[in-house]
Write a structure and sequence with these properties.
It is a single chain. The protein is an alpha+beta fold. Helices cover about 15% and strands about 30% of the residues. It is built from eleven helices and 38 strands. It has an eight-stranded parallel sheet. It has a six-stranded antiparallel sheet with strand order 9-10-11-16-13-14, covered by helices on one side. Strands 26, 28, 31, 33, 36 and 38 form a six-stranded antiparallel sheet that branches. A hairpin with a 2-residue loop joins strand 34 (about 635-645) and strand 35 (about 645-655). The longest helix has 15 residues, at about 210-225. The radius of gyration is 27 Å and the shape is globular.
Length: about 700
């Protein structure tokens, strides 16, 4: 578990690495690599040798490159299951009853039928010390029946059990449970005797021993047991395991630890997407567990998380507490059409087709020749994202069948694959050159032009478009736009059309007014279109729209910490006003400090971060002193950007903690929205605590 805030070698709490963006998990402290080795040498200790059967010291074996792990028949599709860490950490609630209860829920809630198989224990299942014979001892308070009893129970449900240890002297939790370094064959034998089916092998306290050697030794130990055990390498991507581990493990972590935030998920997604060529049956890129249902993101963001992990053929390991999960969480996790994308036996990871200004098209080749296409919107506003059947690799055809995997509806398209995608949303479709395409109604795209920012008592103008993407015409088309109770929404143009041929649109102008006195905030509108196919099949399309009631900024110069923002995203914890980012909680930061210089005012953030302000075309300039906050010492690299509407108007380049504050000024004249962005500097999220110190807006 590398907390980036990152379960990084365990990152001490608050390192600001999120398992790639995650501040270290509470209680997990990782010591790895040369630093750990140096500490031990200084203490007069030696690095333990890798252990062979019988306790003999084994020479480090050469890493084999010939036999792919798929030859053992394990993990031919990405593993699916549950891991307790993200929801329980090392708290007392992690125990035998909890684990067996999760197995029960897999069956009761249909997750087993959907394909979820592994119920995995993370850290803290053992006592802090081995017994007199050097054996691991399950914690008798947490697991009074022992691990074998838990395995037997899980197996009785038709499921499999996973367990955790680290390729070091101790695991990642600060208590320091026994690691397997030097005990590989003995520990593997215990796991096999207990009936374990899956091993997650972490990277903490590794004494600087070569990663390939450590992970290969455990591979050999597991094979020596004769029991089929899926082997998950969790070395956080530090040594590029995708380049060497296909004959060592069945999956390997590509990043530090994930955290339950949009910024963390997004950073990890971007690190894992380029690694598509390395994934396949029996050897998978692992961008870490799912956060779906843990509460730090919206359902829209969780659907994106689940969609993108599935398109990337990532392991789907549930990280939320299913005992208290919402119906929406079960709906997301149990979507069999999306799961089928992840589990497609061809085993291809989706590849990026295009990526421009936060608009992503990622396509995954499927065994039946179809393509699953994710239209993913990274940005904080709705965006039109489009591609074509040819661009995603489909052969030429008169038309194609397009299946929406979240709405569970099929339509036909002449070749265009397009949608207006909500902020942080994903439209996930499966497209095929289907000879029976004509049985489906035409695909219709809904779009809405104009700013969804409304000042109370004033009228905003929006224009909707209903466009036929199908090979056949859409007939009897009708469009509606509904607002909250008390709002006035009136069409000033046609709202119906008798027929829309391929590529034609019905455009309608709407006047939208929020009543005077409406409180600032976000409000839901719904744009809907109903239509029929030429053969009379009824169909509809819907575009959720969020309108924000905003307040014009005051005249003069205002500290940004005093102004209301439109929206924020942050890689670790919330954006803080007038303090540093701190840790995961609100208000836990300290004085903003860059290069030893304290600042009384400003914003404390953590990459990846975005803070948006409404400026209503009335402002001219943003100024700030920017840099890495001192609270993480020498760690972290970031870059600052200021955007005026869709144009980047100022940026710093990459900054480190060794650099003093940089003065940043941006001309934002005429902009309706100003966006302050902090990126990870291109090296992933790791303690990227950044300050917009003394930030001001002039209007």
């Amino acid at each position: 578990m590398r907390h980036l805030h990152t379960r990084t070698t365990p990152t001490p709490p608050g390192t600001g690495t999120a398992r790639t963006a995650r501040a270290p998990h509470p209680g997990r402290i990782r010591v790895a690599g040369a630093l750990a080795a140096g500490l031990l040498c200084a203490a007069g200790l030696t690095t333990p040798a890798l252990a062979a059967p019988g306790g003999a010291t084994a020479a480090v074996p050469a890493v084999r490159t010939a036999s792919p792990t798929s030859a053992d028949g394990l993990a031919l599709t990405p593993p699916m299951g549950f891991n307790n860490w993200n929801s329980t950490h090392c708290r007392a609630e992690f125990d035998q009853d909890m684990v067996e209860g999760i197995a029960d829920l897999f069956v009761e809630k249909g997750l087993k039928d959907a394909g979820y198989q592994y119920v995995n224990l993370d850290d803290c299942w053992a006592l802090p010390s081995r017994d007199a014979d050097g054996k691991l001892v399950p914690d008798p308070e947490r697991f009074p029946g022992g691990i074998k009893a838990v395995a037997d129970y899980v197996h009785s449900k038709g499921l499999k059990l996973g367990i955790y240890t680290s390729a070091g002297t101790k695991t990642c939790d600060s208590v320091g449970f026994p690691g397997a370094l030097g005990h590989e064959y003995s520990d593997a034998r215990q796991f096999a005797d207990w009936g374990v089916d899956y091993l997650k092998y972490d990277n903490c306290n590794n004494q600087g021993v070569d990663a390939r050697s450590r992970y290969t030794t455990m591979r050999d130990a597991l094979r020596a047991t004769g029991r089929p055990i899926v082997y998950s390498i969790c070395e956080w991507g530090e040594n590029k395991p995708w380049e060497w581990a296909s004959d060592v493990g069945h999956l390997w972590r590509t990043t530090g630890d994930i955290s339950d935030s949009w910024g963390s998920m997004l950073s990890i997604l971007k690190q894992n997407l380029p690694l598509a060529p390395y994934a396949g049956p029996g050897h998978w890129n692992d961008p870490d567990m799912l956060e779906v249902g843990n509460g730090g993101m919206t359902d829209t963001e969780y659907r994106s998380h689940f969609s993108m992990w599935s398109v990337m053929a990532a392991p789907l390991l549930i990280g939320s507490d299913l005992r208290t999960a919402s119906a929406a969480t079960f709906d997301i996790l149990g979507n069999k059409e999306v799961v089928a994308v992840d589990q497609d036996p061809l085993g291809k990871q989706g590849s990026v087709v295009s990526s421009t200004d936060g608009r992503w098209v990622v396509a995954k080749e499927m065994r039946d020749g179809s393509r699953t296409v994710a239209l993913f919107n990274e940005s904080g506003t709705a965006q039109r994202i489009a591609t074509t059947a040819a661009a995603v690799g489909l052969p030429g055809a008169d038309a194609y069948t397009l299946r929406d995997l979240w709405r569970h509806r099929s339509s036909n398209t002449a070749g265009t694959i397009a949608a207006t995608v909500p902020a942080h949303g994903t439209v996930l479709v499966r497209v095929s050159a289907d000879p029976a395409w004509a049985k489906n109604p035409p695909a219709v795209e809904l779009g809405l032009e104009g700013s969804p920012l409304v000042e109370a008592g004033r009228t905003a103008t929006l224009t909707s478009a209903v466009t036929d993407l199908g090979r056949t015409s859409a007939t009897r088309v009708a469009v509606t736009l509904r607002g909250p109770a008390g709002w006035t929404v009136a069409a000033t143009g046609p709202t119906t059309a008798a027929s829309l041929p391929t590529g034609r649109s019905l455009r309608t102008t709407w006047r939208v007014t929020a009543p005077a006195g409406t409180a600032p905030g976000t409000y839901d509108l719904a744009l809907k279109a109903a239509y029929r196919s030429p053969t009379g099949i009824a169909a509809d399309a819907e575009l959720p729209v969020q309108a924000s009631v905003v307040v014009a900024p005051p005249a003069g110069m205002s500290p940004l910490g005093d102004l209301p923002w439109l929206s924020t995203t942050n890689g670790w914890g919330p954006v803080e006003r007038d303090t540093s980012n701190g840790e995961e909680g609100s208000g836990d930061g300290g004085t903003l400090t860059i290069g030893g210089v304290p600042y009384a005012r400003g914003l404390g953030v953590h990459a990846e971060s975005t803070v948006e302000y409404y400026t209503g075309t009335a402002c001219e300039r943003v100024t700030a002193d920017v840099g890495l906050d001192d609270e993480k010492g020498a760690r972290g690299t970031v870059a600052f950007e200021i955007w005026a509407d869709g144009t980047k108007v100022a940026s710093t380049g990459v900054l480190t903690n060794a650099m003093p504050a940089q003065s940043l000024t941006a001309d934002v004249t005429g902009a309706q929205v100003v966006r302050l962005v902090v990126t990870d500097g291109g090296d992933g999220i790791d303690s990227d605590h950044a300050d917009w110190a003394d930030a001001k807006l002039s209007c």
